[in-house]
Design brief:
The protein is of the alpha+beta class and 100 residues long. The protein contains three helices and four strands. The protein has a four-stranded antiparallel sheet. Strand 2 and strand 3 form a beta hairpin. The radius of gyration is 14 Å and the shape is globular. 8% of the residues are buried.
């Protein structure tokens, strides 16, 4: 099992827009070999941001890497345009391989 997470610091004024963007976009993940599941997670709120994480589970690192090089990946990410001021910095990608 392989897990890929992107953590986002989102301006509190744009929470609803950010969540709507993720709910309404076509992810194409279900069409990708090795994909297991996806969740968008809302974390703690701070004075200047709300923490979110996109969490995907894959059967292997190879399956995840194939997704990142696919046409499905390009189409999904072309839709990810949020209003200026939504993101406080770039997403933080974290990758995990199951060990137990």
């Amino acid at each position: 099992m392989f897990i890929a997470m992107n953590r986002f610091k989102i301006n509190p004024a744009f929470e609803a827009d950010f969540e709507r963007l993720w709910r309404e976009r076509d992810s194409y993940l279900a069409e990708v070999p090795g994909f297991r599941s996806f969740a968008l997670l809302r974390g703690p709120a701070h004075d200047d941001h709300v923490l979110y994480a996109s969490h995907t589970i894959w059967e292997s690192r190879a399956a995840f890497e194939a997704w990142t090089e696919s046409e499905h990946f390009r189409k999904a990410h072309a839709q990810a345009k949020a209003p200026k001021g939504t993101y406080l910095g770039h997403p933080n990608l974290e990758l995990f391989e199951a060990v137990a």
